[in-house]
Amino acid sequence: MKTVKQVMVALKKKGDAQTRKTYARHGAPEKMFGVKVADMKVIAKQIKGNQDLAYELFDTGNCDARYLAGLVADGSLMTRSRLNQWARDADWTMVSDWTVAWVASENVAGTDLALKWMKAKKESIASSGWATYSSIVSTIADEELDFAEIRMLLKTVATDVHSQPDRVRVGMNRFVIAVGTFVAPLTKQAKTTAKKIGKVTADMGDTACKIPVALAYIEKNEKMGRIGRKRAAAKC
Q1: Contact criterion met (CB below 8 Å) for 145 and 113
Q2: Are the CB atoms for 202 and 162 separated by under 8 Å?
Q3: Where are the domains of the chain?
């Protein structure tokens, strides 16, 4: 597969009604085929490294194609302008909180963009900001992280989380978990923040999704010996 048309045909063939129904319950707009993530990964392997094709896939506006674009694109090669465009255009949680966060976290400007997006009035962009920083702390070596900045963000979560829109609350909660799990020197402060915020609630729509209690999640990872063990890559 070398063209966006060929990839779209392949995606359409893999789409099914049940997956479309599931994605719709999770807030996906109508422009989708309903392709399982496992099937998208198979297609991604066939076109990996084709940066221009990834851009074309995202620009189709199709949900499946946009998620696939995130799997294929090398975020380190993307311009700030394009990353900002992807954040603005993301119209589904799987795109704003995963696709956009993945590629932004791979970019040298990732931290700056995350901080900028966190302040956005648009809920999906702010959510992308928190998701991006979560991806950064989960993959970047501790010595390359700005601990003072992360501490300030934890304080922001402690004071502001319950007054934020649903998706931002979820993103902030995930950030606390990410810091507590992947940044061992800050696990103690992350747990303190987790205790302060307690259980975070949000409208998850007609889904079975549950928001994890940050403190319990971090403590579970402690018991399993996972603290400080970085992920090889943000994409999954």
Answers
A1: no
A2: no
A3: 1-73, 93-236
pLDDT band for position 208 (cuts 50, 70, 90): confident
Of the candidates 95, 16, 102, the one whose C-alpha atom is nearest the C-alpha of residue 59 is 95
- Asked if the model's pLDDT at residue 236 lies above 90, the reply is no
The amino acid occupying position 66 is: R
pTM (2 decimals)? 0.96
CA distances from 95 to 25, 91, 209, 226 (A): 15, 7, 17, 27
Q: How far apart are CA 212 and CA 215, in angstroms?
A: 9
Q: What digits encode the pLDDT tens for the residues 110-134?
A: 999 999 999 999 999 999 999 999 9
Report CA-CA distances (Å) from 134 to 14, 24, 54, 176, 178: 31, 26, 23, 8, 6
Counting runs of H as helices and runs of E as strands, what totals does the chain give?
14, 0
pLDDT at 2 over 90: no
